[in-house]
Amino acid sequence: MDAAIILAGGRSRRSGRQHKACRRVPGDGRNWIDRQVDILRQAGFAPVYLVTGYRPRRILACLHRRAMKRHNFRARRGPFSTLQVGLHNLSGPALVVQVDTTLPPVLWLRRLRRLAHARNVAAVSPIDRWGSGGHPLMVSQSWLPSLCAVPLGAADARLDRQLGYLSAVEHIRLPWNHYLRYSRLNTRQEWCSARRKLRSIL
Hints:
This protein is of the alpha/beta class. About 30% of the residues lie in helices and about 20% in strands. This is MobA-like NTP transferase domain-containing protein.
């Protein structure tokens, strides 16, 4: 089985006392983080890791699904440190998901897995029609040691920089017509926008 890693190490300062991953998905009944875990398990990812950083109790209090928990005690070192904690000691490919990523349908996630296994690539990720995207990101087993070996103090200790070092053959980017990441899920207007986007891909 391939693992899935949900990165939830950020401050989420604008969301107030309630973490954005704890908010209820309109018309669903589940909160955002439970929905993510359910979809990842349906797509065949196991185990599912939740990596926390700042104020972990906020998000752990609303997790009602079975997931392995890891905590980044070096969260102040930046997002790349949270990624390295999630990838540490994995024995196979892994799907990396930011906590505010809208996951595509299960069949599309399974396609990511097949490509990562069927080809000799380092990473597979989506790209929308505007050239943006990047999550969820399927990381191959062969690329894991390189990511974990990057010094946190280095200028290129960023996932986008590391992806930039890969050739087009090593990094497959699949076309996708929707935005998969929400940088803000804090206000009523932002959640209404998220609901419309969710409906468009479900």
